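[audit] Reproducing an earlier prediction to check determinism. Same input, same settings, fresh worker. If the tokens differ from the archived copy the diff job will pick it up downstream; this log only records the rerun itself.
[audit] input (215 residues):
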Amino acid sequence: MTKKVKIDSPRIMEKMPILEITDAMLEEAYISMGIVEDCELSNLTIDKLCLDKLIFKNVTFVNVTFSNVEITDVVFEKCNMANVDFSDGIIHRVELKQSKFTGGNLSGATLRNIVFDSCLADMATFGFTNSKQVAFRECSMIKADFYESIFKNVQFDRCNLDQANVAGTSLNGIDLSSCTFEQLVISFEQLEGCTVSAEQAIGFAKGLGLIIKEG
């Protein structure tokens, strides 16, 4: 099993009020201390929004752009966040659980102490992110983009990474051995120090043009 990365959990009070997001909150660009559940947030474009100490449950995000967002101590549980735009955000102590992040955009974001747990994140964009203490656990990440990202203590545990793009990203210290993929877009010079299974190693060798002799 892939060695677990120690990640700080969101610091959230055990009991918080149900919160209804109002126009006034959005105008102030600050939402804090509460549970937002069973609702839809749609057609929102806000720069430098601050989300702090929140739980989102069964929330659907439609046509939402929160560029330069600051998200701290937040849980997204069973949310539909497909195509949400959190580009260039600063995101710290956040968990996404059983959520849909297909096509989500975190490009250029700073990620610290983040967990994606059992999420659908196909075609999600993580290019140019700076990621430290981040875990992707049992996620589908087909064609996800990690182009020229920085990884430090990043874990991929039993994820589907088929056709993911990690070109320009150092995989030193990254363990992909529990993940599945038929093909990765990679920079072979960045593979040094990456842990893979024997089967994956054969695939990489074939990608280098080597002829594998059986027996």
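[audit] rerun output stored. Observation attached for the diff report: The longest helix spans residues 198-207.
[audit] end
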